[in-house]
Amino acid sequence: YKRQLFLTKEALIIHMKIPAGIDVAPHAHPNNCILFMVSGNIRLTLENSDVILGQGDMALIPANLKVGLVNESNSEAETLAIVLSPNYSSLDEFKQRLTNLLKGEKD
């Protein structure tokens, strides 16, 4: 579940629900991203270290840094992702890129 809240050339804010058990392989994006945990827990793999984020935690993911994401819990997690200077023209384009990423295809 993804819902666009705001899109301009300066920022894209997306509310995401992250399913239990999902494991997204490390990948990089060309933009800085701020991830705010609304509920639940996820593990981020940032290069060679892991960080556990829980409700109320926030992380800055720098552009071009490889990051993986795992929801190891039995419940869904919710985040707000704030992409700075996004290169997406629409939510549909973002959804397609995310779908490709989850299938293991390159962004």
Order of strands across the main sheet: 1-2-9-4-7
Q: What about the largest sheet?
A: 5 strands, antiparallel
* Beta strand count: 9
User: What share of residues are in beta strands?
Assistant: over 45%
User: What's the order of the H and E elements?
Assistant: EEEEEEEEEH
Q: In angstroms, what separates the terminal alpha carbons?
A: 19 Å
Q: What is the arithmetic mean of pLDDT?
A: 87
Low-pLDDT segments = none
Molecular structure report:
- With about 110 residues, the chain is mainly beta.
- Helix content is about 10%, strand content about 50%.
- A hairpin with a 2-residue loop joins β5 (about 40-45) and β6 (about 50-55).
- The model has no long low-confidence stretch (mean pLDDT about 85).
- It is globular.
Task: List the keywords.
107 residues, 1 helix, mainly beta
Helices and strands in order:
Elements: E1 2-7, E2 11-18, E3 23-27, E4 33-39, E5 42-46, E6 49-53, E7 58-61, E8 67-70, E9 77-84, H1 91-102
Antiparallel strand pairs: 1-2, 2-9, 3-8, 4-7, 4-9, 5-6, 5-8
Concise account of the structure shown:
The protein has 107 residues and is mainly beta. 11% of the residues lie in helices and 49% in strands.
